[in-house]
Design a protein that fits this description.
The protein has helices at 35-49, 69-86, 95-100, 143-153, 164-168, 170-174, 185-189, 200-203, 225-229, and strands at residues 2-7, 12-19, 22-30, 59-65, 90-94, 108-117, 120-129, 132-142, 158-162, 180-183. Strands 3-2-1-4-5 form a five-stranded mixed beta sheet. Strands 8-7-6-9-10 form a five-stranded mixed beta sheet. Helix 1 (35-49) crosses helix 2 (69-86). Helix content is 32%, strand content 32%. By secondary structure, it is α/β, with parallel strands linked by helices. The chain starts with a strand and ends with a helix. The longest helix is centred in the middle third of the chain and has 18 residues, at 69-86. The protein folds into two domains: 2-95 and 195-229, 2-Layer Sandwich (Nucleotidyltransferase, domain 5), CATH 3.30.420.40; 103-189, 2-Layer Sandwich (Nucleotidyltransferase, domain 5).
């Protein structure tokens, strides 16, 4: 089965094509250009290099969020446009879970965090065991509240932490001395977190929900700035 995976939830854009779990090709671009400028050329180039057409794809997967409101919409709209003419199935995943896929080798808890602004983070807590992942919790919280919750419930566990928010809120982590945290921002994220679409092969749930093109919706987890400003 051939699958196309698209992630545009951050400033980076990543597209991969998998066949029977193996990477056929992948493009990831991290530039200041907007997703509306770079996504389609990336897909066109990737498909040309693979000597494939969109109709050759059996299933699509796209990041539903959270992350850039505009970026998430562009990714979802593009995949829906590809799937509709051929009535191909679509699966969705969160940006935090995709981040955790880089650490599928880790037996234990992985905390993925994306900056949600105003001292808050989008987070996902996942338990990995022999390459299989279980979602413990996903949501959005104030960084201090989240870290206090972790201290109250997972004090005796080793937690691998990744995502751009580990860099942005590194001072909050430094104030915690009781949690057994291994901070991976120095290895993987630095100031910016670049998501790899091909990591989908580690997080895919064979029993996950399959959507038709008209059923796929964004999952922002909180209101946009405009919605907050105008109380929409």
């Amino acid at each position: 089965m051939k699958k196309m995976i698209v992630d545009t939830s951050s400033t980076a854009a990543s597209v991969a094509v998998l066949e029977d779990g193996l990477i056929k090709g992948e493009f990831t671009i991290h530039t200041e250009r907007t997703h509306s400028e770079k996504l389609m050329p990336m897909i066109e180039n990737l498909m040309r290099h693979l000597d494939m057409k969109i109709e050759d794809i059996d299933e699509f997967a796209v990041c539903e969020g959270p992350g850039s409101f505009t970026g998430v919409r562009i990714g979802i709209s593009t995949v829906k446009a590809f799937a509709q003419p051929f009535d191909k199935p679509i699966k969705t995943f969160t940006s935090m879970k995709l981040l955790s896929g880089a650490f599928s080798y880790h037996d234990g808890l992985v905390l993925s965090m994306v900056d949600a602004k105003r001292d808050s983070v989008y987070y996902g807590l996942y338990r990995w065991h022999h390459g299989s992942v279980l979602t413990v919790e996903e949501g959005v919280k104030n960084i201090e509240v989240l870290l206090n919750d972790l201290e109250n419930h997972f004090l005796n566990e080793h937690i691998l932490v990744t995502g751009e928010a580990t860099w942005i809120y590194r001072d909050a982590f430094k104030r915690l001395g009781n949690l057994n945290l291994h901070n991976c921002y120095k290895m993987t994220d630095q100031k910016n977190s670049v998501l790899s679409a091909s990591n989908y092969r580690y997080i895919e749930d064979d029993k996950g929900t399959v959507h038709r093109y008209n059923e796929v919706k964004a999952n922002y987890m909180k209101k946009s700035q405009a919605e907050r400003d105008f109380d929409l």
